[in-house]
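Database export, one record per block. Field names are fixed; values are copied verbatim from the stored entry.
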Amino acid sequence: MKSVVAYMEWLLIILYICLGPIGVGRKTLARAVALALYYSEQSIYTIGMSKYTEANSIYKLINIPRGKDMVDPEQNKLIKIIQQKPYTIILFDQIEKVHHEFWNILLAYLDNDN
C-alpha cells in the first residue's frame, strides 16, 4: 500500500492508494476505515471511474471546462462532494480504467502547498 499525505492550512487530506488484484479487499478496507473514523459506512462516496476513460471526461470531476461541455451536470462533481461532506472517504472504484491524466491531476493537487 502506498500513501501520500498532503497538508493544507486547515485541512488534512490523506490519500491511500490501494492496488491489487480483484477480491483483495479494497472496498472492505474503505468500509473499515469509515467505521473507524466516522462510525458509519455512509461517509463513503463511491465514484465509478469507468466513465472517465477519455481525457476530456476526467475534467468534469474537477471543474476545468473543456470544449462545449461547460453546462454538464457532472461538472465539478469531486469538488461538490468535498464541499458538501468535507469529512468523507472517496472511493475511486475501477480506477484502473481511468485515463492516465487523472493521476497527474490528482497528484499535482495533493502536492500543491495551497
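Remark 1: The longest strand covers residues 2-7.
Remark 2: Residues 22 and 79 are 29 Å apart (CA to CA).
End of record.
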